[in-house]
Structure formats: C-alpha cells, structure tokens
Task: structure prediction
Amino acid sequence: MSKKKQKVEETKEEKKDLIKVEEPEKPTLEQEIERKQKKNIFIFINIAILVFLIGIFSIIFALMNVTKSVIVNGVSIKGIDVSNLSMIEAKNKIEEALNIELNNSIKLSANEYETTLNTSQIEFEYNISKAVEDAYSVGRNGNIIQNNYEILKAAFLCKDIMPEYTYNKDTLNYIVDSIESKIPGLVSQATYYREGETLIITPGTDGIKVNKDKLKEEIINTIVNENAVEILQKNQPISLEIPIEQTKADAIDIEQIHKDIYTEPKDAYYEENPFKIYAEVEGVDFAISMDEAKGIIAENKEEYRIPLKITPANKTINDIGTEAFPYLISSFTTRYDASNVNRSQNLAIATSKINGTVLMPGEEFSFNQVVGKRTIEEGYKDAKIYQDGKVVDGLAGGICQISSTLYNAVVQANLEIVERRNHSFTTSYVKAGRDATVVYGVIDFKFKNTRTYPIKIEGSVNSGIAEFNIHGIKEEVEYTVDLAPVVTASIPYSTQYIPDPTLMPGQQVLVQAGGSGCKVTTYKETKLDGKLVSREIISTDTYQPMKAIIRVGP
Result:
C-alpha cells in the first residue's frame, strides 16, 4: 500500500473516532420519568392558574349581575324586549303591549258569511306575572357556572319567553258551534218526525261542514301569534278564513230509524216511598214491511211518508190524577200582536204541538222533532222573518217566539240546555240573550229533564200572550233561576240608499228602519231563599246590526 493511501485511511479512522467521542449519551429511564413529571407539574400549575382566573372572573361576573335588580340583556317576552328593566317596569310594558293584542278583533269569514271574534268573548288571558318572573330568573336560578352560561347565552343568542295563557274552552266551543249553524250552504242530514200515524222522512242535502277542531286551533294560534307592533301598523282586524269541507249527506238508514221509533205500549203508573211517576208509552211500529219501506225511500223525492201502526196505552198519566204534577216549577210569558192573524196562527199551531208534553227524568226534548216540519199542509201561514239582513215574508214566521218563550221557562225550571242558538238580529219579544232560534233541519232547541221527577209542559197562545208553564213535583231543595243578559258592546248599523226614479228629486222614503247590533254575555243566576248561590255564563251572543234602507229620488 502506498504511503498516500495509507495516510487517507488513517485520516478516516481519526474522523470516526472523533464522531464517536462527540455523540451525546442517551438519558436514563429515571431521567426521562423526572423530565415528564416536571412537564406535567408545569401544565397542572398553568391549568390551575387558568381555572382560578376563570373562577374569579365568574364570581365577579355573577356578583355584578346578581346585585342588579333588573332583567339581564337579551331577554324578551313574546318578542317584546325587557332587557335591563325591573320586574315592575317589565310587567307594565308587557301589559300595555299585550292589551293592544287582546283588544284586536279576528274577522272570520267563509263563503258570504262574516263575523268577528274578540278575545274577551272567550276570556283569553296571558299570565304576565309568571312570564316576568321567568324573565327575571334568567341567570339567577342555578350555580355560578350555570348562571353565567345562561346570561352569556341570552346576551349572544337572545331568549324569548312565551307567556302561559288560559281561555274558556266551553265558550269557544259554543261560539264555534254558533258560527257553524249560521254559515250558508251547510250540509243537512236526513231528519224524521211523526205526524199522527205517519212517519215523515226528509232526505239530507249535500253541502259544507266546518272543521270545528281546526277552527278552534287556528283561532287560538292567531291570538297567540299576534304582534302588538304589527297590529298598530295595520290598524285593522286580523282576517281568518273559516276552514270548511265539502260534505255529502248520509244516506237514509231506514233500519236505524225503525229501531229508533219502535216501542211497545206501556201504561202509566206511579210508585210511593219514594214517589215516582212513569208516563205511558204508545206502541209504535211500521205499518208496512221493511222491504216496502226501503222501496219507498228508494224513490227520488223531497219527502218520504211511512205509515205507522200506533197502539195506545190503556192508562195515561192524566188518568192517574192531578197528584202526578202538583207543583208549578216555572212560568214565562211573551207578548205578540194578536191583530196579526197569520203570525198568531203560526204561534198557536206550534204551541199546540208542545202542549201536554211529558218528559221523564233524563229524557231529552227536541223542538224540531216535537213541532215537526213547518208546512202549508200543517196550517202555517206567511209572516215576517229575518233574511239576509232584511225583514221579509216567510212561511211559519214567528215560530221562534215560541221556542224563545219555552227556552226561558226551561231555564227557570233549572233544566239542562242541550242545544240553543241566538238569532242573527235582536227580537222584540225578549231581550237579547234570552232568545232561542230554530230552523227545521238546521238549528234546533233541545233540553233535558235533569230533575228527579217527570215534568209536564203546558203551553197556550191567547189574547196577545204566549205562555209556557212547567209542572212537576217539588225537589227537596228548590232553587230560583233566571237569566241576566249583559250587553258588552254595541255594533252601529249602516244605511243603504236605493235610487228610485219614480220619486221627486231629493225625496227620500224609508223602506226599513235601521237598528244597532250588540254583543251580549248572559249569566244564569241561581238563588236559594233569595240569596245568590251561583252566577255562571250560559251564552255569549253576537247580534248583527239591521241596516237602514232608504229609497231616494234622482
């Protein structure tokens, strides 16, 4: 090997030795553990300091907010900002805003029918005090961390509190039922009534039906979703379309009708200790076979007549004696114009159908079933009725005076009202809130004998006075009952001018006098020995104004 090459090799060896010398030694396991422990201690100390600082900040932040007697930032009630307000200030602000909402009206419409509903009619109320308490409690009900979280969340994301609310469900149900009965074009189901020894069946007609559950839900949602600012800007009622559905009338179920009317004859009798009276029952059955009856209703007619076989009872209540109904429970009268022969005859016919009716305990009375269909064949005449905002002639005009007179006698007898509707307009024979309108096949007046013993209804129409007396047996505790209508609002009437070229220039002729409408809440007052025992709302009615109609010359 040459000297030069040998020298290079020696140089390389020296460098390797040098590198080996400079290479650091690896830490031992004990040294590595000690290093990690120091690092963890350093991290723990930093976290502890951070937690301590956060805790101090939270305490200071919480104390700053807790010591304030106002609602924290970002909190609102039903969209109304109540930040930095005291509870009293917030309550006053919310009451003022929500009163605007609750005084607004909802305009309900379907087809050509329109009516308005005010929240006061259903006694709608917000629990404002509870809502303000909930607003004030934001950031105050938990621990420091929870409170701070709620405060920061409200400040950055906002928190809106919806107040709890209450309303009178029974009144809303009654109003919705009343609305349904007044909408034109309602579906009518098949009806039937007995006339002597004939069963008269009227087929139903297709029409519309109100989705009452949906309407009630939409009314409440509309009230709850109202906004006071928007109401002030619009300055008009909120419009709501009444949900209606096209509905087909049910087919006549002749077999079910037969089951409903079929009865075996029973004699009247009474028992003593305790005293009970059982009215006689006539035997009723079809005088023809079921196949023949089905053949009759298979024809396309406006009315079907089924002959009946009537088997009278051998002994009636009247045969028992006067002890059956010794006590006059109630009596009510109304006045009518006896010189109006047609109307007087209508009143007399309807009253004669009701006179002598006996209702057993729990038995229900239907005006339309007892009085039957009002026809020319029955002797009814044309007389004045309300129609489309006008007074016009109509068959059996005046019948509603009989149903209204009976209604008041029934209320005073403390019987249960099952179905009753007010007129579209006020009447002359009873005060608003005391009337009960009827329309055959559409609107009925029904009540139930809720007394312990049977009752007997006596009616008369004579010398300008229509009267109903209800007789029975005195209860162990006998209450005095009456109606107390209260007018809550007046609705002004409008005037319609009709050009009439036959009149002199500027001449005016009054065709129909106008009359204001009103809203009435009627209370049922129950007294015992002259002292008021209870006072409850029995109806909430709206009567439309009667427009004035005037013909004017050119």
Summary: The first helix runs from residue 3 to 22. DSSP finds 14 helices and 31 strands in the chain. Residues 200 and 233 are 57 Å apart (CA to CA).
